[in-house]
Structure prediction request, 132 residues.
Amino acid sequence: MERWIVTWIMLGMIVTCNGTNTENLIGKWRLDSVQYYYNNFSHSSTGWYQEETYEYLPTDELVVSAVNAYMRIPIIVSKKEIHHLNPLGETEEIYSILKLNRESLVLQVDNTPLFAGNQQSRYEIRYFSRVP
Prediction:
């Protein structure tokens, strides 16, 4: 009987520890690099975004800033996803949260294939670091 109790407690701890702590998302993040994938081909890009920053506000908004311009995007945050909404409140893009802690954020977004046909995989992974 004691083994079952210990097993259930350990299982509960594992499940709760694997959840994403979305409170760490609030704040300003700098886009460090992007890795692009398309049908098993990939390449990375760094430096072209000219200090692009993403500020996640507690009011369920995202402020994207770059080169003296900014854009406000309404969002919905769940444990593993960030939904970017259009002005009608409909989901435009879904970012999967791959990693989130106090210092780093890694997001993945699926992109539309460039060519017609099935069995295509196109996505990008974005790497961020927190702005102090």
In short: Residues 3-19 have pLDDT under 50 and may be disordered. The beta strands are 27-38, 41-46, 53-57, 61-66, 69-77, 81-85, 91-100, 104-110, 122-130. Helices lie at 2-17. The first strand starts at residue 27 and ends at 38.
